[in-house]
Predict the structure.
Amino acid sequence: MSELTTIDSPSAAKAGDARPSLPARLIPYAMIARPDHWIKNVFMGLGVLLACFYHPNLLSIASIGPIVLAVIATCIIASSNYVINEVLDAPTDRSHPVKKNRPIPSGKVLLPVAYAEWIVLGIVGLSLASLVNVPFFFSALSLLVMGLIYNIPPVRAKDHAYVDVLTESVNNPIRLLLGWFAVTRSEFPPVSLLISYWMIGAFFMAAKRFSEYRAIGDPAVAAAYRNSFRYYDEQKLLVSMFFYTTCFALFLGVFIVRYHLELILIFPLFAGFVCYYLNIAFKDDSATASPEKLYQERGLMTYLVICLAAFVLLMLIQIPFLYQLFNVQPSSVSPLWKF
């Protein structure tokens, strides 16, 4: 009788009727789309910048609309990839000390709705991409496909050591292409630069793995969280970072000597930036484990601005003495592949 009285009491009924508001229920679905990760699409900026250097006539107010549309489309497609990543990572995220609190592992998201969100975001993103131009659409499709390769079995590249880093970091050159094709559609950027952009992205991604592995601190827990950690250890990750950085420098050197020797003066700055980034990776609770939070590293961001300013300045000037010093002839061949 006392139980019935308790259930029928006004206070109990009021507590039972208390449900989260609609905005509160939608927030977890917004979170799994990771809008805070859209900052990664800043890598499109180099593509836009280079396209404007090669085609300064295209830099006008009329080009702002396509560029903005391109950024929106890229962000939506990236969110589609993030959603499927969250869905398929949920079982292993429960073994992570922090990621177990994400919306799906903590039970705040209905899986059928999450799958629908993934599909809808992909369709909307590709639809917007098709409004930019054909090369941009296929670049956007490549970004979406790489998300499938990275996340979905039986391939699920993220479960395989080294392959996980290389397949996720290939999004860097894809983003460069997205920025490039937001401005021009008739030519393809230098391949040496695309490979260099891929390799520096691999370095960043390996640094992320390194920071994650150190933060977990237990090989068994790390292996339960991420299958690739069954093979990785700190030494292997550090050696791989050295490999990726070497490849980055090699292909960047090919681009510089082939097309704009003045950029060779930026090498000390780039080398310092890589060392600075690696130093941050060794910190406890390192921001490199969550690259979307790197803006909090003010020293690194200041250094990055200096590097970008030096890059733009050197792209705008010519220093004939450098060609004499290194005995290099200025290229007479267009650096761009034409469609």
User: Anything to note?
Assistant: The chain has a mean pLDDT of 88.
